[in-house]
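Sequence in, structure out. Go.
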Amino acid sequence: MLVFNLPYPELDMITGFSAATGGFQVPAPILAYPESLGVATAVQLDSGNVSFVDMDVSSFAHVGIREKSYVDDLYYRIHVTPGRIDLGNVLSVQTEEIRIWNAYFATKDMTDYVEPLSEGVTVTEPVTTPYIMAPLGELSYIVTVAQSGPPQFSTAVLWTIDGVDYSVDITGRRVVVWPFGPNWRQPVNESWSGRRTSSLRSAVSSNADPFDPNPAVGLTMRSH
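Output:
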């Protein structure tokens, strides 16, 4: 350990001539002795008995937390886009894209994939399961809905990634455009027919079954 005592009062400011500070001014240390331990400047090095001593540095421990940012909102999850496909009225062949993005910085296992069960709805898959998704990797699935098939359809595509199930619902209805407009000078008649039955429960009350939920509908008109 090296100690020095200066024969004159310590400077209030270590000036820009100090080789230790590289030209910057810093406050002098506040010590309890008139002849105190300190740092000698370049001007003082040519006089007095100069020596140095290690100084204790005060420190303390502090526990901090990390603030959330866009990284927490965007990454460390699986993104499936879109979350739902509602085609509405289907007049022709329709195609839609489903994108699956692994927003983790690590690989994720796709262990299962289930295609839609509805007739006329098919999906072109880019890979076969089981499959290991690369970090930040993306897959594109193409959904095709044919014009032929049931009038209404409601189905889904299913994936299992890293033990979590993801799905995209696909709904719509197939329609046929009637190309002939009515002749409004002639009446247009719309008829409905269904079934309704009733049974006598007692002499004072009866119970009627509801109307047929799928009645037959007819339309009569002239087009010319």
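Check: The radius of gyration is 42 Å. The longest helix spans residues 70-74.
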